[in-house]
Amino acid sequence: MMFKRSILAAMLLAVATPALAHTGHDVVSGFLFGFSHPLGGLDHVLAMVSVGLFAALLGGRALWAPPASFVGMMLVGGILGLSGIEVPAVEFGIAMSIVVLGAIVTWVRQWPILAAVTLVGVFALFHGYAHGAEIPVGSDAALYSLGFALASAMLHGVGISAGLLTSGSTTVMRLTGAVVTMSGIIIAFG
Could you report how far apart the first and last alpha carbons of the chain are, in Å? Predict the structure, then answer.
């Protein structure tokens, strides 16, 4: 039964996809391009899930504060990227965000909320800049930005959920953080 449903879903997707080739779908494609951008790169996924894990470690008000800071500052970075303002060392900043956030999750320590939102906000500028600088030609910038902001928030939610599910096991959090940190080092220097 599951196989039949999978075949049916694939057929429906194949039939629906050509409709995007018709004019008048730029609005949808701008949003979809933006939404898919953070999901298409391991660096973005690792950083954004790590922000959620960090927030889950902090708990309380911090459950929403670091992710909100990240999304807000990522949009600022996106504006910088869209406007062509040069931000130095973007790729290195993105890689370091993975290393540092992974290390924070590995250490499983409490942070002041202001320090947490400031740190993730700085890293978000680099991620946002990359999103803004890589907007596809002809995409609506506002819808593209909305797409990458929502996808990022979704990835933060995945991290928060995973963090809350494993909150009783510091071993799991430490192992996850170590894997993220090593991945960041490989991305930075690989």
Answer: 44
Q: How many CB atoms are located within 10 Å of the residue 41 CB? A: 16
What pTM, to 2 d.p., does this model score?
0.83
Token code pair at residue 23: 């004019």
Residue 57 · residue 50 · CB < 8 Å: no
pLDDT tens for 2-38 read 444 444 344 344 444 343 333 344 445 789 989 998 8
61: CB partners within 8 A, 6+ apart? 113
In total, the chain counts a number of residues equal to: 190
CA nearest neighbour of 66 among 78, 54, 49, 79: 54
Distance between CA atoms of 158 and 152, rounded to whole angstroms? 10
DSSP string, 52-73: HHHHHHH-GGGGTHHHHHHHHH
